[in-house]
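We were asked to recover a plausible sequence for a given structure. The inputs and outputs are reproduced exactly as logged, with field labels preserved.

PROBLEM: sequence recovery
POSITIONS: 146
GIVEN STRUCTURE:
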């Protein structure tokens, strides 16, 4: 990993992923509040300094006013492997375990960190905690405790 001037890094014109308004603002905020994350997950570039992984992070870094960014050069990749990397770096393998997120994480904080679209909110999280504490169940049809 090395740090370079942000002006040396070029966005990839063939980047297949976009990040829109609200999510982009969250990414910029995240970079401003937690810049160390960039060092743990640097932008991946080829030898021509074109981004293979991290186009939206680069855009957010520019928006955040950073002058330098950490990069890793993927010098050993063929052109075909570079294309494969671009797609695979952006594919979301796996799924979220919504039960763990609802019971172990703060919903508001998760949303601030950029995770949205989850099937619960802060109220649902509170209900899940209460259910765990009381260990009682209610009949869905009549509302009687069982």
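RECOVERED SEQUENCE:
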């Amino acid at each position: 990993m090395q740090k370079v001037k942000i002006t040396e890094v070029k966005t990839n014109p063939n980047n297949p992923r976009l990040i829109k308004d609200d999510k982009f603002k969250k990414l910029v905020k995240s970079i401003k509040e937690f810049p160390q994350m960039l060092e743990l997950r640097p932008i991946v570039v080829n030898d021509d300094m074109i981004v293979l992984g991290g186009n939206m992070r680069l855009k957010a870094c520019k928006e955040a006013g950073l002058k330098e960014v950490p990069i890793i050069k993927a010098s050993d990749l063929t052109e075909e492997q570079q294309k494969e990397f671009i797609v695979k770096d952006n594919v979301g393998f796996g799924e979220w375990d919504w039960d763990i997120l609802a019971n172990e994480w703060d919903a508001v904080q998760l949303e601030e960190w950029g995770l949205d679209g989850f099937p619960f909110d802060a109220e649902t999280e509170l209900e899940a905690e209460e259910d765990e504490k009381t260990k009682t169940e209610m009949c869905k049809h009549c509302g009687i405790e069982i």
